[in-house]
Amino acid sequence: MAVIGGAETPARKAKWALLDVVVVVYALVPVLWIVSLSFKTKGTITDGNFVPREWTLDNYQEIFTTTEFVRALVNSIGIALIATLIAVVLGTMAAYAVARLDFPGKRALIGVSLLIAMFPQVSLVSPLFDIERALGLFDTWPGLILPYITFALPLAIYTLSAFFREIPWELEKAAKMDGATPAQAFLKVIAPLAAPGVFTTAILVFIFAWNDFLFAISLTSTERARTVPAALSFFTGASQFEDPTGTISAAAVVITIPIIVFVLFFQRRIVAGLTSGAVKG
Amino acid sequence: MLTPSLPAPTATKPRQPPAPRTLTAGERWRLRAPLLPALVFAIALTQVPFLLTLYYSVQSQNLLRPGSKEFVGLANYGKVFTDELFRNAVFNTVTLTASTVILSMLLGIGLAVLLDKKFLGRSVVRTLLITPFLVMPAAAALLWKTSMFNPVFGLVNWMLSPFGVDNVDWASRYPMPAIVGVLVWQWTPFMMLIVLAGLQSQSPEVLEAAKVDGANAWQTFRRVTLPHLRQFIELAILLGSIFIVQTFDAIFMITQGGPGQATTNLPYFIYQQAFRAFDVGEAAAAGVIVVVATITIAMVALRVISNLFTEESA
């Protein structure tokens, strides 16, 4: 597929390489700029230099000494992990049913989960706010975990059933013939095969919960449950007149690097997860 | 992120002839059982609040005036439809979504074609290109605002300074293009990934045949690749639109819907009505309208797309 029209001459190669560089620069400049800002001192942050003239770790030190950020980080990690765990367990069961079992009303059930996937989140925020306040869930971990699970479920079911369709299910039949119950066949034979798909789904769900801003800003009010995206919107410098760009940059680097490392390690899986389900074949 | 490809028929079990009819009610429920927890959970958490939204939407309720709650019928809907701010929000939503989807799709196709070539370090480049999609949107928005659009030391002005642009405050002078710029940067990787999957599913023989028949690269792309990509592009547009319509972080962080109401889209409008103006009734009515509109449009779009899918496989 590499050669669509003509041979790979050195000139062509050079042209593509140049195009490559342009593209990478386009995608990366903002990201690198953030990294650069996070290492600049307060005095040089406005100098517009791409490479910091004076390197400093002050910004990082500052965010890790303010409880505001550390607490938000703990909330974010805890909430996203718990939501991911529950959503993946429920999603696995559901995807198994979707991919494997034939039963009356399956299409209708799938249709319902489709509708939920499209439900505009913003139209639920204000009633959720009231419900959670009435139930005492407002500004708590479960108060965010519950909506995250809900909106992650369609994503989880969808990605997982794409993976599950590619599993050699004859093995399951063989296990059943050997006398295993459906539950045993699932746990002992299929689950190990499904693990990579489940893992990929977990990463995607985690990123979804990790990135959410709308629920985080409306369903929390204090540091008790405020996650990083919401905390960022309250980020200001030490004084009103101090520009918070440096600390915001440092915070952005801290919360983005783990995700990028994740993706570097599991990139093939994630790309497959995003696309294999999205399109047949 | 659900697609029409989900209900793939699983005809793996050798069907005993009378299969569907001999299932007892109990057996049917046992087969459904694994799906139920997810479904019950999702329905409870979306439909209970939605019923509450419906209820709010026929009440006049302003949190600033306690005890002001009363049944007003469809008055809130009337208020929403005659509200100029609402119409403005609809208009902004359409502008924002359409420009973002179109621009990021064009860029996405370009990048996908590029990544479809083999070259040194392709997988590294691909990862780097996906990065904008993975940066936390709230953080990305905040940084675009403070470090890219800043009139004094923003990178945008710095890069445009050779062209005689200086000290433009992008977020307040050109709020809509600024927001669209951030969203395009963020969504291009998503479009690219789906188009790339389409490109890689194309059979090399067809391309070879086109070449043998004397088509040049552009003709091959135009007449062979593009029709093949059509379903992928449509899918990406549908999924992208559903998410981009709901954009909230970027607007909250960069412009707060302003200046004035210049970048207030529907989600931000509803949020503002409920959490800033405390007009719960009108916010709820607007919410119901958005739900109905989203689902209608999505259903129509889905039908179109699933028709395409079946035509393709037929």
TrEMBL record, chain A:
Predominant cellular place of this UniProt entry's protein: membrane
Keywords: Cell membrane, Membrane, Transmembrane, Transmembrane helix, Transport
Keyword Nucleus applies: no
Listed Pfam families: BPD_transp_1 (PF00528)
Location of this chain's protein in the cell: Cell membrane
Name under which the protein is recorded: Sugar ABC transporter permease
CDD domains referenced in this protein's UniProt entry, alphabetically: TM_PBP2
Transmembrane segment boundaries: 16-35, 77-96, 108-129, 141-164, 185-210, 248-266
Domain ABC transmembrane type-1: 73-266
Family named by the database record: Belongs to the binding-protein-dependent transport system permease family.
Gene Ontology CC terms, in alphabetical order: plasma membrane
Membrane topology term: Multi-pass membrane protein
Domain of life: Bacteria
InterPro entries reported for this sequence: BP-dep_ABC_trans_perm, MetI-like, MetI-like_sf
Keyword Kinase set for record: no
GO biological process terms held by the UniProt record: transmembrane transport
TrEMBL record, chain B:
ABC transmembrane type-1 domain ranges (all copies): 90-301
Cell compartment(s), UniProt: Cell membrane
Family listed: Belongs to the binding-protein-dependent transport system permease family.
Region Disordered: start-end pairs: 1-22
GO CC term, one of those recorded: plasma membrane
InterPro entries linked to this entry: MetI-like, MetI-like_sf
Pfam annotation, one family: BPD_transp_1
Bilayer disposition of the protein: Multi-pass membrane protein
Transmembrane segments: 35-58, 89-115, 127-144, 178-199, 232-254, 283-305
Organism of this sequence: Longimycelium tulufanense
Protein's name in the database: Sugar ABC transporter permease
Keywords recorded for this protein, A-Z: Cell membrane, Membrane, Transmembrane, Transmembrane helix, Transport
Entries under SUPFAM superfamilies matching the protein: MetI-like
UniProt-listed GO biological process terms: transmembrane transport
Cross-referenced PANTHER family: BLR7065 PROTEIN, INTEGRAL MEMBRANE SUGAR TRANSPORT PROTEIN
